[in-house]
Amino acid sequence: MNLVAVAFLAAIGSAAHLTEVQRKALPDASTTILRKFAFGSGNDQDAEQFMWSKIAARQPQLFLSLGNNIYADEIAYEFKSITKGFDRDAPPYLLREKYQKQLNNSDYVDFLSSTPIIGVWDDHDYGRNDAGSEFPFREESQQLFLDFLGEPRDSVRRSQAGIYTSYTFGTDAKSVKVILLDYRFHRDPYLSLHPNDPSFKGSDGDNLGDSQWRWLEEELRSSKATFNIIASTVQVLPNDRWFGTESWSIFPAARERLLDVIQLSHASGVILLSGNVEFAEINQVSCGDDDAYRLTEVTSSGLTHSYLQGSGLFHFISALAYTIVNAILPWYYRADPTVHYGGSNFGQVVFDWESSPPKASVSVIDRRGRTRMETSIPATRFSGTNDSIGCAPLQLPSPGDYMVRILTVMSLFVLIFGSMIVNVIVVVVVPLQVLRGALFQTKPKTD
Questions:
Q1: Does residue 116 share a domain with residue 134?
Q2: Where do the DSSP E strands lie in 371-410?
Q3: What pLDDT sits at residue 10?
Q4: What's the Cα-to-Cα distance from 104 to each of 10, 16, 98, 117, 344, rounded to whole Å?
Q5: What is the band of 422 on the pLDDT scale with cuts at 50, 70, 90?
Q6: Mean pLDDT rounded to a whole number for the chain
Q7: Domain carrying residue 58
Q8: Residues 184 and 230 in one domain
Q9: Which of 29, 151, 233, 283 could form an SS bridge with 67, CB 3.0 to 4.6 Å?
Q10: At what angle do helices 92-103 and 106-114 cross, to 10 degrees?
Q11: ∠ CA 76-87-90 to the nearest 5 degrees?
Q12: Which residue, 245, 250, 314, 308, is CA-closest to 275?
């Protein structure tokens, strides 16, 4: 397709509106005591939508989407992909097409009519795998995403740069603030766009941008809510993911800044929720000089697919890799290193307002309605000073032990995938060569 055609289709797609659907309105913020809400991420519009009815059956007061509401970007297997990468930008017309397909899904439409939805985007509904501020269609994508959510035309989210926002439910001792971060619109590129690019910051890059940082600091500093839920589409706490998974640890200074902001705000009952990774886990750090303050992050991903749910060779390889690394690596940010779930899942938060202090029970639930993991988080706050900030995992293996585990994983990968290649050669290539020789064998010359 030539550039003129792409530009024409993009203009049509960005100008057209998505089909209006019946939506359940958000509960009145000032009078509603939030007792239960659900959350999740990773919904492929082309996959079976089996999870929406499971979530609705639990009657949450709202659903918090942690991104990848659709998968609009595509992978191109071309020769130039060797140097330019396999991921391709999703132009506005394609984003609109994918959003419309999701809005045409009857299971999702039923869910919209019974459960209010708030949320943010991640990379695949933003428009490109792992994309940040370098994505060329970010403004168009912003409007399409907000159309998909049913955001009012006069919403501040439509006029600001980025989709970050917050909601507060309830009052006084029974209040919850939900803070939605935009990890994509302002995030610095992971890789340099051009050789010797002076604007490239490398590991010193930022995730939120100045305006969003100022907004977040004020949201937490001024918050009187008993619980403050911070929704980040990618994981915040773990920095042990050496195998390339997106997380805040790619930009260490930004991650440290976020943890500092949380502590120094002295906000009550901070809970981190995240998605993106296509499995579920609970991570935790201890903060302060006496390690008395615990900060917990619950990750739920994905709704339609995951490491252990899928078909085809790629999913088989992914499931095998997931099983190996979870059996061998220490996963020292997890509250319990052995607890994780690789099947499709969603999360649920239930508030106990009668407890002293109030508690939030956060759980991860599978497609059959079984609770796979759960943690109880009290509404406490960091009580230290500027001199006592800093967070660390609950357990930390010795460097030698960690290196041995990594080398073991890498050795197993080489052994397994090397064996696969050898088997392909023996089973496919060698017989084909023998057959070719038999069919096209050159007859010896005769005098």
A1: yes
A2: 371-378, 391-393
A3: 40
A4: 21, 16, 10, 16, 22
A5: confident
A6: 91
A7: 12-396
A8: yes
A9: 233
A10: 70
A11: 95
A12: 245
Largest interatomic CA distance in the chain: 106
Instruction: State whether 211 and 153 are in the same domain.
Output: yes
- Residue 209, token pair as written in the block: 């941008």
Domain assignment of residue 3, yes or no: no
- Residue 405 in domain: yes
158 and 201 fall within a common domain = yes
pLDDT 10s digits, 13-64: 445 689 999 999 999 998 999 999 999 999 999 999 999 999 999 999 999 9
**348 within a domain of the structure (yes/no):** yes
| Contact partners, residue 36, CB within 8 Å, separation at least 6 | 58, 59, 60, 61, 348, 349, 350, 351
Least Cα distance to 36 among 63, 69, 54 occurs for: 63
Q: Are residues 328 and 409 both part of a single domain? A: no
Q: Are residues 125 and 152 in the same domain?
A: yes
Look up the CATH number of the domain holding residue 175.
3.60.21.70
Specify the higher pLDDT residue, 272 or 191: 272
**Residue 165: which pLDDT band, with cuts at 50, 70 and 90?**
very high
Domain total in the chain: 2
Residues 426 and 384 both lie in one domain:
no
Beta bridge pairs of residue 63: 38, 117
Structure tokens belonging to residue 277: 């990774």
Is 146 part of any domain? Answer: yes
Q: With contact defined as beta carbons under 8 Å apart, do 226 and 379 qualify?
A: yes
Q: 193 and 335: one domain?
A: yes
Name every residue whose Cβ is closer than 8 Å to that of residue 362 and which is 6 or more positions away in sequence.
271, 273, 282, 296, 298, 347, 348, 349, 374, 375, 376, 377
Q: Decide the pairing of beta strands 117-120 and 227-231.
A: unpaired
Band (pLDDT 50/70/90 cuts) for residue 444 is low
**What are the pLDDT digits (tens) for 368-387?**
999 999 999 999 999 988 88
Residues 274, 299: contact at Cβ < 8 Å? yes
Residues 143-152, mean pLDDT to the nearest whole number? 98
